[in-house]
Structure formats: C-alpha cells, structure tokens
Design brief:
The complex is a heterodimer of chains A (about 575) and B (about 350). With about 575 residues, chain A is mainly α. Chain A contains 24 helices and two strands. Chain A has a two-stranded antiparallel sheet with strand order 1-2. In chain A, a hairpin with a 2-residue loop joins strand 1 and strand 2. Chain B contains twelve helices and twelve strands. In chain B, strands 1, 2, 3, 4, 5, 11 and 12 form a seven-stranded mixed sheet that branches. A five-stranded mixed sheet of chain B has the order 8-7-9-6-10, with helices on one face. Chain B folds into two domains: about 1-135 and about 260-305, 3-Layer(aba) Sandwich (D-Maltodextrin-Binding Protein, domain 2), CATH 3.40.190; about 140-255 and about 315-340, Periplasmic binding protein-like II (D-Maltodextrin-Binding Protein, domain 2, 3-Layer(aba) Sandwich). In chain B, helix 6 packs across helix 12 and helix 8 crosses helix 9. The radius of gyration of chain B is 20 Å and the shape is globular. In chain B, strand 1 (about 40-45), helix 3 and strand 2 (about 65-70) form a beta-alpha-beta unit. The interface between A and B is large, with 46 and 56 residues.
Chain lengths: ~575, ~350
C-alpha cells in the first residue's frame, strides 16, 4: 500500500517495433481493466435502478433515513479516532525501533508483524472475552483487585470498537513511518542539539515535522483501513446497537435483499475512499522528503538511558494488547470447557479440537477452500501483478501508466463494496460464478492486486533493464528474457509478493461474507457463523489454526527468500 | 464417560430395534435409491452441536449416505435458499428453519417438493401442512433465563413484564429476529399479547444483542449478562445440563411455542436421500433422541421427556399463525431494529 505515494512513471524504454509477446501484455492489461470495471459498473447501474424503475430513489432513501445516516456518522467518528490512535501508537513504535537504542528491536518488529497478520475480526472476538463488561477476564481481575462493582472497560461500545480497530490498524502506520525514519539523517537533529535543544525538543520540533507528511499519510491509511472493516464492527458494534456502513450494507443483503440500497450505500463509501487516497497521494507527493538525500547522511541512535527499560516495558504493554493477551485468551478458550473459569485440570478439554476438525462438517471443507483459494489467488495474483508491474516499469504499452491506476484502484474499493458489485455481476448469465469458489477467487484477486502490484513494482524497479537488453540482443524475445533473466533476479521479491497475497486471502472476511455459499465457505466465514451462534471454543480453535498457518507461511517464505538472497550474492 | 457410554448403548439398541421395523420393500427401494445418491444436503437452523449429532446419528444408520450440514440462523437459511433459487443454483435437499412463515413463502414460490412421509402419520394436525409440503420437526419454547450466581431466585424475573424493570438496565441479553426464527416467533407472540410498546420499553434497558437464539445461553452462563429476555429453551437446558449456572423461567402468562418445519426442496439434487432423511428425522427414535439428548420438545405423541422438564400440557403456550408470521416478517425485523438500534 505504501506504493501509492511513490507512483512514478519510469523512463521510456523498450522497443517500439512489433513484438510477438505483445498479446501477453495486452491480455494481462485487459484482464486487469475488466476485473475492476465490471463490479464497479454494476454498482452504479444497480444503485440507480430501484424497485420502481430508474431514478435516484435509492440515494434519497439512503441519505434521508435516520438509521443509514447514523451508520455513516458512526463510521466517520470511529475511523477518525482509529486513525488518530493508530498514528500515535504506530509512529511512537516506529520511531523507537528505528531511531533509539531500544532493546530487542527485531522481536518488536516481529510482534508488530504479528499484529498485522492477526485478522481484526479474530482480535475483536478475543477482546469480547477479555473485556466484556461483566464476564471479561480483565474486568474480573479489575473488580477483584479494587472491589469495585463497575467494569473498567466495556468492549461492546464505540470506545471499545475504536480501541480494537486501532490495535490492528497501527501496523500500517508503523511500516510507513519506520521507512521514513530510516531515511532521515541525523544532521538536522545534530544541528538542533548543538544549538542547545534537549532530546525531547529535538524529537518534537525537528524529527516530528520531518515525518509530518508520513504521519498524515499514515492517518489516512489507518482511517481507510478501519472504514472498510466488517468483522470487528459486527462483533463489537452490533451487540451494542451500533451499525457502521459495512454492517449496514451486509444487513441490506438479508432477505428480502435490497441490492439497490446496498449499491447506493456503497457509493459514498467508495467516494470517501477515493477522496482520501487522492489526498494522501497529494500530501506525500508534494512535500517529498527534502531531507532524504540518499543514504549519505549519518543516522545515529538516540540513547534512552534511564528510560530505556521503562520504554521497553511500555512497548511490550502496547503489543500485549494486540498480540499476547488476545492469543492467550484464544488458547485458553480453545482448551477450556468454560472459558470464563480458570484453566484447571477439571476445566481442561480437547473436545473443541475434536469437534472442530472431525465432527463439525463445515470445517474440513472450509479449510480446503481457504487454502485452495489462498494458493490459487497468490499464484495467479503474483503472475498478473508481476506482468503488470513489468509493463508499467518498462513502458511496454502505450498508456501503461494508466495500468498503474487500475492495479491500485481496488485500494479505494472496500471489500464489502467490491463484493456487492461482484455479487450483482456474477449471479446472472452469462457468467454465473456465484455458488462456486471462483467468485471468491475473483474478489480476492481484485482486492489483493494493489498489494501484489506495489510489491512487484518495487522488485522490478531494483532490477536494471540492461541485463534484459543484453539477453534480447543475444536473440531472446521479451518473454524469454523475462523468464530467464529478470524472473530469477526478481524471485525473492516475487515470493514476498506471493506471501502477502496469501495471508491477505486467508484472513479475508468482508467480501467473503456476501459471496459465500455453503459449498464455497472459507474459514473466516465459518468463524463468523460460529460467532453468531456463540460457539466460543470452536472459534478459538479455528482462529489459532488461521494464525499458525499465517506464521508458518511467513517463516517459510523468509527462509526461502533469505536463501535466495544469499544465492544471488554468491 | 459413563453417561456417554449409556447413550451409546441406548443408540445401539434403538438402531437394532428400528432396523426390524422399517424393512418393507418400499423402504428398501428408497434406501437403495438414496445410497446411489450418496449424500443429503441439509440447510438447517438446528443448533450446531445438535444438528451435527443428528447427522452422525443418520450416517451411522445409513452407512454410505453422507449428511452435509449447513447450519445458520433461520432468516439466513431463507436468505440463502432464496439467493440460490434466484441464481439458479440447486444445492439444498432438506430445508429446516424455526420460522413457520418461511414455509408458507417457499410453498407459494413453488420451491418445495410435496412429500408425505409415512412417519408423519402419527403427528398431530398442528405439525403437518394440510397440503403435504412440510412437517414440524421439533417444537422449541422461547423462555426467560437467569444466572443464579448473579441473580437471587427472589430477585429473578418471573414474567415477561418483570423484564421491563429498570433494575435490569445493562443486565439483559436478547437474540435477534433478523437472524433467528425462534425469536421472530417470540416477538410476534409477545406483540400480540402486549403490543409493540412492550419491546419499546424493553429496549430502554440497553439490552445486549446477540444473533442466534442459542447464543443467550452462553452469555447468561458466563455472567456477561445475567438475564436472558428470550432464547431457545432447549439450548438453555443443554447448557444447564453441562453444569453451567442457569435457571429457566417458564412465564405463567404464556410461553411462545415455535414449531420448526422441515421440507424437501423442489430442486433437491438428491431427492431420494432427502426423502429417506425426512422419514428418518420424523421416526419415533429420532424424535426421542431430540428429546433425550437435545432437550427439545417434539410433535410425536409417543415421545417421553426428561423428568426435570415441564410437560407442554402444563404450560400455557402462545402459538402464532404461520401465515401471519410470513406477512409480518419484514415489519417485525424493521421495528425491532428501530427499537434496539441494530
């Protein structure tokens, strides 16, 4: 996602003569355009085609009914605060990890990665067990410590929702700010130091302003992320009578479905995201980082001295909110007969595992579907992302730069809106994909394209075209050169792309929830289903499975990538 | 362990006896045809553990015929069936929800297959569609429940109106009629008794909203909300039997009775297996198992119930008309959301 800010049109290269590989490039490009335009086109059409013929009655209803307006208002407030908190946590951690002598930085990075990988709906579910006002474990501990009757924290509230969503949005800000912090040299900070400013003052008056554009960009990213979430608001908001735009769209699919209203309601969400992305691009593009002078400047670490350990404890405390506590309660719920009771031998059981894997009919099928879709989408997605990134990077086609726009366009389409469009597009002839896993495949492929594309683009940018040119002079065609020269060099980068897409797919809920049928259920949907019936132990088991697989994939990929990098160095 | 063993013996005996009783040529032909299809797909709103147990009960008896269970809330089952019908997808064989109104609608839309199971002969009229399209698989009550660790028996609500008391503010949990057929029926039954004002008042108590009629049992048991203002009685009973702190109240003014129909889809991809499954779930042994293992009531007159559960004839039951449920479905969902906010 960070790539939005650094869209750049590469130099015009490559031959303009007829190329036999042209169909491949044109095919890939058309496919991408088709992927994006069909669902969005249908949303606009459907939003204007109400029950009584064409018109704007859908929009009128959506923007006059109190319930809809309240959902929009809730969403805006929630997303705003999520953005603020995510920026505070994300930038603080990023700064500490990149610019200070905080201990165990690699571990902290890994934990931030773990927060990133944790599906927000799973985090939300875990937090219902931790901070439900009466049975929540943290509240119970609080009561027994203070003797108070009141709860410390009610997770089923707007505040609770903001808190949980911020916990799983801050990694986006973190990665953005960490990148910037690593580039800013210490020269300016030194100057301020010499002129007598203390460390805090330097941080506030020099470092902070330098990172301001990135902070604002990070805010927008976190805002957008929370705007598009479905699972967390459904799990934490609905019990407290709180609708957001996404849960409202989902509710409109219930029988009798009001697709026209769902489509009309999707449009403002779409426009809001478009606006914000444009804004973000503008902010990041215009300001630039005047201080980013290559890698020349020296970057020295700030010594935290006596604050070193307290700060470290604070960081761990923050990360325990997003990682340790939720994981611990999931494990406990998976192994306990009654999750709210202490985990003694009497309360210990493996029934949940047995039920989840061997008795409950949905699980095996859903696991199979999830991994099928994960592998398939990651593979096809990486190939297409690589081709598109290659086209735009080497300027192979006229208008290649517009392809960048299409590849990144899904960023502005929240998953549930995409699903509304795909549902309308593929439940009717000629192409009835609804009822098969292919509709999910299309949804995931579209949704993951921006991440895949950004990753692939970064990879190709780092490989100079002259190697390819050499092989083409020696007679290889472009596809051959790509396969034999560029692909091996790009392998590590592309494996990372694959990994990102795979993890994005196996945790996807907001689009899947509208597109699944019993045959094409995926694990996230099964978890949501189980949540609606309150099957806590089984959810915990499936959640742990999802997390384990994600981590294994990441580790495997890192291992492979590291070996690749070593190999190319030799 | 001992208990499970007993149930096992019991089921084995049942299987032994029933094997002899259904062995006419007609049955053999149906079993044969069902075996050839190899599978039956069951869209059901029966709680996940219960429907899973039930599927295994069937699969043990008819080896080689798999039951694929797709469990979700009644309203979601209907949503799915209608979505699939409009997209021309033929997936469901047997459809079971707790909203009798759904079957009026499905019948009207010609989405059901007419089939008169032999096993249904013995059922009372209230459990049978006169045109032969659907049959009451089970009867569920919607009741009040509370957590005795948090609420004393003296304090506990005894009637529907007691739930409106301001002292329960922030302490109650409800399930949702937009998800659960049981709650849909519950709401209509109480609206007919007390009018919409009842729910308007109830909503002022900041009731925690769950979806499934089975979910309040867990919420009450954990103490998250000590009072359930509605919910499936059998699931409260099951949760109680597992040793959780729950007490069930059957209000004297009347208990909503939910008869949950089962029917075969017109476009069933495995029609014979669907018929066999329908016959099976209405047999006395299946119905008895629902009563013994799942704590449900059924329409089968010969079924006996656990001693610690009240007899239906001793309760004042509030029944609602299926046609009225169908007609007022949208209204109920809309007003509930209006009052409760989601």
């Amino acid at each position: 996602m960070e790539a939005v800010g650094r869209l750049r049109v590469g130099s015009r290269r490559g031959s303009r003569t007829w190329d036999r590989t042209l169909p491949v490039w044109i095919g890939a490009s058309l496919f991408l355009v088709f992927l994006m335009l069909l669902p969005l086109g249908w949303i606009f059409v459907t939003s204007l085609r109400g029950e009584e013929g064409w018109g704007i009655s859908g929009y009128v209803q959506v923007f006059t009914q109190q319930a809809f307006l309240r959902a929009i208002w809730n969403t805006l407030i929630i997303s705003f605060w999520v953005g603020v908190i995510a920026v505070v946590i994300g930038s603080l951690l990023a700064w500490l990890v990149t610019r200070t002598d905080l201990p165990l930085k690699q571990t902290i990075r890994a934990l931030v990665m773990a927060s990133f990988v944790t599906p927000p709906f799973l985090g939300a579910f875990a937090w219902t067990l931790l901070a439900g006002p009466n049975a929540g474990l943290l509240n119970k501990i609080y009561r027994s410590l203070t003797g108070s009757e009141e709860a410390l924290f009610n997770i089923f509230s707007m505040g609770g929702l903001i808190f949980v969503m911020a916990l799983y949005s801050f990694p986006y800000v973190f990665s953005m700010i960490a990148n910037v912090c690593e580039l800013i040299s210490s020269d300016l900070e030194d100057a301020a130091n010499i002129l007598g400013a203390n460390k805090l003052r330097v941080a506030l008056t020099v470092t902070l302003p330098l990172t301001a554009p990135a902070l604002l960009g990070g805010f927008i990213l976190a805002f957008l992320h929370s705007l598009s979430l479905f699972g967390a608001p459904a799990i934490l908001g609905l019990p407290a009578s709180l609708h957001t735009i996404t849960t409202q769209i989902w509710a409109l699919f219930q029988y009798p479905p009001r697709l026209d209203l769902a489509a009309a309601f999707s449009v403002p969400l779409l426009l809001a995201t478009m606006l914000l992305i444009a804004l973000q691009k503008k902010i990041l593009g215009r300001r630039g980082y005047s201080t980013v002078g290559g890698k020349g400047g020296e970057r020295r670490l700030l010594h935290l001295e006596i604050f070193r350990i307290p700060t470290f404890v604070l960081v761990l405390a923050i990360l325990s909110l997003s990682v340790f506590l939720p994981y611990w309660i999931l494990l406990k719920a998976a192994l306990a007969k009654a999750w709210a009771q202490p985990l003694t031998w009497d309360n210990f059981t493996l029934e949940n595992f047995k039920f989840a894997f061997f008795q409950y009919g949905d699980t095996q099928n859903a696991i199979l579907n999830t991994f099928k879709l994960g592998v398939l989408t990651a593979t096809v997605g990486t190939i297409i992302a690589a081709l598109i990134a290659y086209i735009t990077n080497r300027q192979l086609l006229w208008g290649a730069r517009y392809l960048t726009f299409f590849a990144l366009a899904p960023l502005v389409v929240p998953g549930i809106v995409l699903a509304v469009g795909l549902f309308i597009a593929y439940t009717r002839p000629p192409l009835v994909l609804y009822g098969t896993i292919w509709i999910m495949f299309v949804a995931y492929l579209t949704k993951e394209m921006p991440i895949g594309f950004s990753q692939a683009e970064t990879t190709f940018k780092s490989i100079h075209p002259e190697l390819e040119d050499a092989s083409r002079i020696l007679g290889a065609n472009r596809l051959g050169a790509l396969k034999d020269v560029t692909a091996p060099l790009a392998r590590a980068g592309l494996i990372a792309t694959w990994c990102f897409i795979f993890i994005g797919v196996i945790r996807e809920l907001s689009a899947s929830i509208l597109l699944f049928t019993p045959k094409s259920k995926v694990v996230s949907v099964v978890i949501f289903d189980l949540k609606e019936e309150g099957q806590i132990g089984v959810i915990a088991v499936l959640g742990i499975l999802l997390l384990l697989v994600s981590f294994l994939v990441i580790l495997a990929v890192q291992w492979v990538a590291r070996r690749e990098i070593l190999a190319t160095r030799e | 362990m001992k208990k499970r063993f007993r149930i096992f013996i019991y089921m084995a005996l049942l299987a032994f006896f029933t094997w002899g009783s259904v062995s006419s040529a007609q049955d053999a032909a149906l079993i044969e045809a069902a075996r050839k299809e190899g599978k039956v797909i069951w869209y059901t709103s029966l709680a996940i553990p219960s429907s899973t147990v039930f599927a295994h009960f069937f699969m043990n008896k008819y080896k080689g015929i798999e039951v694929e269970v797709h469990r979700t809330g009644s309203q979601r089952v209907l949503q799915r069936v209608m979505q699939e019908a409009s997209a021309g997808i033929k997936n469901a064989d047997v459809i079971h929800t707790s909203d009798a109104g759904h079957f009026v609608l499905l019948k009207e839309k010609r989405l059901l297959l007419k089939y008169v199971p032999r096993a249904a002969e013995i059922f009372p009229a209230g459990f049978k569609d006169p045109d032969g399209f659907y049959y009451g698989l089970r009867a569920t009550l919607s009741v009040i429940a509370y957590n005795p660790k948090v609420v004393t028996d003296k304090d506990a609500p005894k009637s529907w109106k007691d739930l409106l008391d301001g002292k329960w503010r922030g302490k109650e949990v409800t399930a949702h009629p937009g998800y659960s057929g049981i709650i849909m029926t519950h709401v209509l039954a109480l609206v007919k008794q007390y009018g919409w004002d009842y729910f308007k008042e109830l909503a002022k108590n900041k009731v925690h909203i769950t979806q499934s009629a089975n979910d309040p049992a867990g919420v009450v048991a954990s103490g998250e909300r000590p009072v359930g203002v509605n919910g499936a009685e059998y699931f409260y009973y099951k949760t109680l039997k597992q040793g959780n702190p729950i007490k069930i109240v059957y209000p004297k003014e009347g208990v909503p009775l939910v008869v949950s129909p089962t029917a075969i889809a017109n476009a069933a991809p495995h029609p014979n297996a669907a018929k066999l499954f329908t016959e099976f779930i209405l047999t006395k042994e299946s119905q008895q198992m629902l009563a013994d293992k799942e704590g449900l009531y059924t329409g089968h007159p010969e079924v006996t119930y656990p001693k610690d559960k009240p007899m239906l004839k001793d309760l004042k039951l509030l029944a609602v008309d299926a046609d009225e449920l169908e007609k007022r479905n949208a209204e109920i969902k809309k007003r509930f959301v209006e009052f409760f906010g989601a």
